[in-house]
Amino acid sequence: MATLSPEILARFENINRRQLDLETKVTQLKNVITLTAQQELYSDIRDGVKDLEKWIEDIKQTADEQEREKDKQTILHRLQRNEEQYKQLQASIRRAVLTSKQNIEREAKIEREMLLGRVDGRNTFAFEMRRRNFTSEDALLHSASDVTDALRRTTQLMQQEIERSAYSAKILDESSRALKSTYSEYRGFSSVLRGSKQLITKLEQIDWTDRLLILFGLFVFVLVVLYILKKRVWNTGFGWMSWFASWVI
């Protein structure tokens, strides 16, 4: 299976973190008893679902842009699990909204009965205690929401840092490949220069050998010419002089 790039892996990490965050909020939504808390949680969940839809579509588009079919199938295969979790999350959201609606209606019914005097003192005390507990839970939910927002901002900053680190790693990798290529070319040039130097040395040796052979040939040629001159001119001249001298005498 092909290895995913750091950028695509970071996108999948974002989706997984957002799905976990939404699952926590869905659990909180099941336990609310006030309309305000329900609306706030559902608004956050709806925004998170929109982010998930956008990120999933972005990864699909990235998969379609891959040059190799193997890389495309790897991305889509991993994305399939997130899509299944996304469908399960949507079903959980619908059930949580229905449960919270039933809780709100039940609490509103008890409150109406209290106003009409249909609830005895013991039930009234229990209702007040439950009301206070849920009020405390609402405060905790608001605090948890603030913490979640802070964590989301921190996650976004970390994501930006991861993307910058991934880009830097990519640049360093490309620079390393360029340096390796340059080093290989340099080694190739060194081999060519070494061979050229050896060839030039051999040519110089051959040049000196040719010069010596030419000089030797020239020397032999001069000797031959002198020998011929001696035979044809010098010896012949002395022969005529000897004959002339003998004739005069």
Task: Provide a descriptive summary of the structure in words.
With 249 residues, this protein is an all-alpha fold. The chain has one domain (6-190). Helices cover 92% and strands 0% of the residues. The protein contains four helices and no strands. It starts with 5 loop residues before the first helix and ends with a helix. It is found in: Endoplasmic reticulum membrane. Pfam families: Sec20 (PF03908). Its main location: endoplasmic reticulum. Residues 143-233 form the Sec20 C-terminal domain.
User: Would you count the extended β strands for me?
Assistant: 0
Percent of residues in helices comes to over 70%
Number of domains: 1
Indicate the overall shape: rod-shaped
How far apart, in Å, are the first and last alpha carbons?
A: 123 Å
Order of helices and strands: HHHH
Rg: 50 Å
Mean pLDDT: 76
- Uncertain regions spanning at least 5 consecutive residues: 118-123
Strand content: under 5%
Number of helices: 4
Biggest sheet architecture: none
Structural class: mainly alpha
Short description:
One of its GO terms (biological process) is retrograde vesicle-mediated transport, Golgi to endoplasmic reticulum. The protein has 4 helices and no strands. The chain is mainly α.
Quick tags:
249 residues, 0% strand, mainly alpha, single chain
